[in-house]
Amino acid sequence: MVSNMTLAEVKQLNYKADGSCTISIPTLEELVIWCQTNDVKLLIELKEVVKPIECVLQLLKLYQKYPTYMYAHTLVISFLPAPLYEVRKRDPKIAVCMLHSGAFYRGLVLGGIDTPEWYVKLAPSLCDYVLQLYAKYVAPSLIGASVMGPKYTPVSYTHLTLPTKRIV
Description:
about 170 residues; alpha/beta; 4-stranded parallel β-sheet; two-stranded antiparallel sheet; 9 helices
């Protein structure tokens, strides 16, 4: 698991982009520098649930180091409201976007990914509906979201089987 690896171990990992070249995994700072140099906007998704404060603090260092680019060209996104709240609490100028899915609890129950509470197992669709209302009407004002992301629906199997070659 990548979270258990050192940076040196992660830097040794490579992947093939389309069979034509091997690419090493950049750090977030390396990616920021590349995006800044190439005038590319960047979405940074926060997924950390084990050490969310540490993750936010590392992100804030990049905003301090590259303020002109970061404030104007990045958007911090997450399905989790807590890290977004921490970002805005520590720096209200950072644009954040709360994402949400209409089938979060159904995915847990049907996918067997986690062991949800009894009431989620009993009525996952109702729990998803309540979560959607929360994500749409309550969470943005609580966390100070700059943007509310559209309802996220995972891609279908058809999309996953489309050709994966890059067009250059």
